[in-house]
Write a structure and sequence with these properties.
Layout: H1 20-26, E1 29-33, E2 39-46, E3 54-60, H2 64-68, E4 74-86, E5 99-114, H3 117-132, H4 148-152, E6 156-171, H5 178-190, H6 194-205
Antiparallel strand pairs: 1-2, 1-4, 2-3, 3-6, 4-5, 5-6
Helix pairs in contact: 5-6
Length: 210
């Protein structure tokens, strides 16, 4: 009997992310869930700059989750962006109840376990280069102390996710009047939740389709 297709991520049309791939790129620290019901937080990134069909990551080899990974297994990676409680005190024009605003994305795909040292080293290098890109003097894996990387490689277990779907949610009070959204932004900045407020400002400035 064939496996049933995974249910889609719940997201009303108003909250459907315009660019879920960007959410994944901007927030690479993900929760990886595999069929054995193991779940581990770990950075997961796109393997190539110009493609979104393959992701890579690694975790500690002693993690029971790492030991359970099997090539061909289905996997879900959940990427969480900024989020915050929204108080009803900020709703004036359209009174409401407490809720939560958030940005998130789900990636579903098929696992490929990577054990070859050369391939694992390439995944580490790719991960470090991406994370260090914003620094004035980026650190490179080549800067590691002598022998450190060789010592590390046997202690990790790397993987690829061959991506089948990417879905995203941006729930940012976009169904509420402009005045209420302005009060929410002000409230979040004062709370302070500036990251989420900035996402809301970007949402306001984005072109809207009729």
């Amino acid at each position: 009997m064939a496996d049933s297709p995974a249910p889609p991520l719940y997201r009303p049309a108003a909250y459907d992310a315009a660019d879920p791939v960007k959410i994944v790129r901007d927030h690479p620290f993900a929760l990886l869930v595999s069929p054995q019901m193991h779940a581990t937080f770990t950075p997961i990134i796109f393997e190539f700059d110009d493609r979104s069909d393959v992701m890579v990551g690694h975790m500690a080899g002693r993690n029971a989750h790492a030991l359970s990974l099997l090539t061909g297994d289905k996997a879900l990676a959940v990427f969480s962006g900024p989020h915050a409680y929204i108080s009803p005190r900020w709703y004036v024009e359209k009174p409401s109840v407490p809720t939560w605003n958030y940005v998130s994305a789900n990636v579903r795909g098929t696992l490929e376990v990577i054990t070859d040292d050369t391939a694992q080293l390439a995944i580490l290098r790719r991960s470090i280069d991406l994370m260090e890109a914003g620094f004035d003097t980026p650190w490179s894996i080549d800067d590691a102390s002598e022998g450190k990387v060789d010592q590390l490689l046997p202690l990790i277990r790397s993987f690829r996710i061959h991506v089948e779907s990417i879905e995203g949610v941006t729930k940012l009070s976009q169904t509420h009047p402009a005045g209420d959204r302005a009060r929410i932004i002000a409230g979040l900045k004062a709370a302070p939740y500036p990251d989420l407020a900035d996402h809301m400002i970007q949402q306001e400035e984005a072109p809207h389709t009729p």
